[in-house]
Amino acid sequence: MKYLLIFIFVFGAMFYFFYGFEKYEVPQNPVKADLIVVEKSSRRMSLYSQDNIIKTYKIALGKNPVGAKEREGDNKTPEGEYNIVAHNAKSAFHKSLRISYPNEKDLAQARQKGVKAGGDIMIHGLPNHIPDKIFLTYHNRVDWTAGCIAVNNREIEEIWNMVPDGTKIIIKP
Protein backbone atom coordinates (compact mmCIF):
# COMPACT_ATOMS: atom_id res chain seq x y z
CA MET A 1 0.00 0.00 0.00
CA LYS A 2 2.84 2.33 0.88
CA TYR A 3 4.47 1.79 -2.55
CA LEU A 4 1.16 2.32 -4.32
CA LEU A 5 0.73 5.71 -2.61
CA ILE A 6 4.30 6.69 -3.49
CA PHE A 7 3.72 5.62 -7.11
CA ILE A 8 0.48 7.63 -7.32
CA PHE A 9 2.16 10.69 -5.81
CA VAL A 10 5.19 10.50 -8.12
CA PHE A 11 3.06 9.84 -11.20
CA GLY A 12 0.71 12.67 -10.30
CA ALA A 13 3.60 15.08 -9.75
CA MET A 14 5.17 14.10 -13.09
CA PHE A 15 1.83 14.48 -14.89
CA TYR A 16 1.32 17.94 -13.39
CA PHE A 17 4.88 18.98 -14.22
CA PHE A 18 4.63 17.93 -17.87
CA TYR A 19 0.96 18.49 -18.65
CA GLY A 20 -0.42 20.74 -15.94
CA PHE A 21 -2.37 23.75 -17.02
CA GLU A 22 -1.05 27.00 -15.79
CA LYS A 23 -2.79 30.28 -15.19
CA TYR A 24 -0.82 33.35 -16.08
CA GLU A 25 -0.94 36.31 -13.76
CA VAL A 26 -1.22 39.52 -15.72
CA PRO A 27 -0.58 42.91 -14.13
CA GLN A 28 -3.81 44.89 -13.75
CA ASN A 29 -2.50 48.21 -15.14
CA PRO A 30 0.73 47.47 -16.99
CA VAL A 31 2.88 50.27 -18.37
CA LYS A 32 2.22 50.54 -22.11
CA ALA A 33 5.16 50.18 -24.46
CA ASP A 34 5.64 52.69 -27.27
CA LEU A 35 8.63 50.93 -28.87
CA ILE A 36 9.97 47.40 -29.24
CA VAL A 37 13.62 46.81 -30.13
CA VAL A 38 14.75 43.33 -31.20
CA GLU A 39 18.47 42.59 -31.28
CA LYS A 40 18.73 39.39 -33.29
CA SER A 41 22.42 38.75 -32.61
CA SER A 42 21.82 38.97 -28.84
CA ARG A 43 18.48 37.09 -28.98
CA ARG A 44 16.98 39.94 -26.97
CA MET A 45 13.78 41.95 -27.24
CA SER A 46 13.26 45.08 -25.16
CA LEU A 47 10.05 47.02 -24.60
CA TYR A 48 10.38 50.78 -24.12
CA SER A 49 8.12 53.47 -22.73
CA GLN A 50 9.19 57.07 -23.19
CA ASP A 51 12.81 56.07 -23.96
CA ASN A 52 13.09 53.86 -20.85
CA ILE A 53 13.40 50.07 -20.99
CA ILE A 54 10.46 48.58 -19.13
CA LYS A 55 11.14 44.89 -19.82
CA THR A 56 13.65 42.72 -21.70
CA TYR A 57 13.06 39.15 -22.91
CA LYS A 58 15.26 36.35 -24.24
CA ILE A 59 13.87 35.24 -27.59
CA ALA A 60 14.05 32.55 -30.24
CA LEU A 61 14.11 33.50 -33.92
CA GLY A 62 13.65 31.87 -37.30
CA LYS A 63 15.59 28.66 -37.94
CA ASN A 64 17.89 30.59 -40.30
CA PRO A 65 18.54 33.67 -38.12
CA VAL A 66 21.49 35.38 -39.80
CA GLY A 67 20.55 38.11 -42.27
CA ALA A 68 17.27 39.77 -43.16
CA LYS A 69 14.26 37.92 -44.50
CA GLU A 70 14.46 37.89 -48.30
CA ARG A 71 11.68 35.59 -49.43
CA GLU A 72 8.82 33.40 -48.34
CA GLY A 73 10.03 30.17 -46.74
CA ASP A 74 13.61 31.24 -45.99
CA ASN A 75 13.05 30.85 -42.22
CA LYS A 76 14.66 34.23 -41.56
CA THR A 77 13.41 36.90 -39.18
CA PRO A 78 13.06 40.25 -40.97
CA GLU A 79 15.20 43.28 -40.17
CA GLY A 80 13.96 46.85 -40.31
CA GLU A 81 11.21 49.09 -38.96
CA TYR A 82 7.66 47.79 -38.69
CA ASN A 83 4.57 48.15 -36.47
CA ILE A 84 2.41 45.83 -34.41
CA VAL A 85 -0.81 45.69 -36.41
CA ALA A 86 -2.97 43.09 -34.62
CA HIS A 87 -3.38 40.90 -31.54
CA ASN A 88 -4.50 37.30 -32.20
CA ALA A 89 -5.91 35.32 -29.27
CA LYS A 90 -6.81 32.36 -31.54
CA SER A 91 -3.30 31.80 -32.85
CA ALA A 92 -1.72 28.38 -33.40
CA PHE A 93 0.60 29.61 -30.66
CA HIS A 94 -0.45 30.68 -27.17
CA LYS A 95 -1.11 34.24 -28.37
CA SER A 96 0.47 36.35 -31.08
CA LEU A 97 1.07 39.93 -32.16
CA ARG A 98 1.26 40.49 -35.92
CA ILE A 99 4.19 42.49 -37.27
CA SER A 100 3.58 44.63 -40.38
CA TYR A 101 6.09 42.68 -42.49
CA PRO A 102 6.43 43.04 -45.46
CA ASN A 103 6.71 46.80 -45.80
CA GLU A 104 7.07 48.61 -49.15
CA LYS A 105 10.87 48.22 -49.12
CA ASP A 106 10.59 44.45 -48.51
CA LEU A 107 8.02 44.10 -51.30
CA ALA A 108 10.21 46.04 -53.74
CA GLN A 109 13.26 43.91 -52.92
CA ALA A 110 11.25 40.71 -53.39
CA ARG A 111 9.84 41.95 -56.72
CA GLN A 112 13.35 42.80 -57.89
CA LYS A 113 14.47 39.23 -57.09
CA GLY A 114 11.33 37.71 -58.62
CA VAL A 115 10.23 36.05 -55.37
CA LYS A 116 7.38 36.39 -52.86
CA ALA A 117 8.28 38.41 -49.76
CA GLY A 118 6.37 36.15 -47.38
CA GLY A 119 4.35 37.29 -44.41
CA ASP A 120 2.72 36.09 -41.18
CA ILE A 121 5.58 37.36 -39.03
CA MET A 122 4.57 37.47 -35.38
CA ILE A 123 5.75 37.79 -31.82
CA HIS A 124 4.24 34.69 -30.25
CA GLY A 125 4.28 32.20 -27.41
CA LEU A 126 4.78 28.46 -27.64
CA PRO A 127 2.74 26.15 -29.88
CA ASN A 128 -0.65 25.34 -28.38
CA HIS A 129 -0.04 21.58 -28.42
CA ILE A 130 3.13 21.81 -26.28
CA PRO A 131 2.77 22.32 -22.51
CA ASP A 132 4.55 25.52 -21.48
CA LYS A 133 6.20 23.85 -18.50
CA ILE A 134 8.28 21.57 -20.72
CA PHE A 135 9.91 24.45 -22.59
CA LEU A 136 9.66 27.23 -20.02
CA THR A 137 13.41 27.77 -19.82
CA TYR A 138 14.57 26.05 -23.02
CA HIS A 139 12.40 27.64 -25.72
CA ASN A 140 14.98 30.33 -26.47
CA ARG A 141 18.12 28.18 -26.61
CA VAL A 142 17.44 27.07 -30.18
CA ASP A 143 16.04 29.15 -33.04
CA TRP A 144 12.96 27.18 -34.08
CA THR A 145 10.39 29.47 -35.72
CA ALA A 146 9.65 30.01 -39.41
CA GLY A 147 10.81 33.64 -39.07
CA CYS A 148 8.83 34.82 -36.07
CA ILE A 149 10.00 36.03 -32.67
CA ALA A 150 9.14 33.58 -29.89
CA VAL A 151 8.86 33.97 -26.12
CA ASN A 152 7.31 31.66 -23.56
CA ASN A 153 3.61 31.79 -22.72
CA ARG A 154 3.99 33.81 -19.52
CA GLU A 155 5.99 36.38 -21.42
CA ILE A 156 3.54 36.68 -24.33
CA GLU A 157 0.80 37.32 -21.76
CA GLU A 158 2.80 40.29 -20.43
CA ILE A 159 3.69 41.54 -23.89
CA TRP A 160 0.08 41.15 -25.07
CA ASN A 161 -1.06 43.54 -22.34
CA MET A 162 1.82 46.01 -22.62
CA VAL A 163 1.97 46.46 -26.39
CA PRO A 164 -0.93 48.18 -28.15
CA ASP A 165 -1.57 47.93 -31.89
CA GLY A 166 0.42 50.59 -33.71
CA THR A 167 3.53 50.17 -31.55
CA LYS A 168 6.74 50.60 -33.56
CA ILE A 169 9.11 47.62 -33.68
CA ILE A 170 12.72 47.90 -34.81
CA ILE A 171 14.39 44.59 -35.65
CA LYS A 172 18.19 44.90 -35.72
CA PRO A 173 20.74 42.35 -37.00
Provide key terms for this protein.
single chain, 173 residues, alpha+beta, L,D-transpeptidase catalytic domain-like, eight-stranded mixed beta sheet, 24% helix, globular
User: Outline, from the CA principal axes?
Assistant: globular
Instruction: State the total count of DSSP E strands.
Output: 8
Give me the Rg, rounded.
19 Å
What is the mean predicted local confidence, pLDDT?
86
Protein topology:
Blueprint (H helix, E strand, L loop, with lengths): L1 H18 L15 E5 L4 E6 L2 E7 L21 E9 L7 E4 L4 H10 L8 E3 L7 H4 L13 E2 L2 H10 L5 E5 L1
If you had to describe this structure to a student in words, what would you say it looks like?
The structure is a single chain. With 173 residues, the chain is of the alpha+beta class. It has one domain: L,D-transpeptidase catalytic domain-like (Beta Barrel). It is 24% helix and 24% strand. The protein has an eight-stranded mixed sheet with strand order 3-2-1-8-4-5-6-7, covered by helices on one side. A hairpin with a 7-residue loop joins strand 4 and strand 5 (96-99). The longest helix is centred in the first third of the chain and has 18 residues, at 2-19. Residues 7-22 have low confidence and may be disordered.
Concise description?
This protein is α+β, with helices and mostly antiparallel strands and 173 residues long.
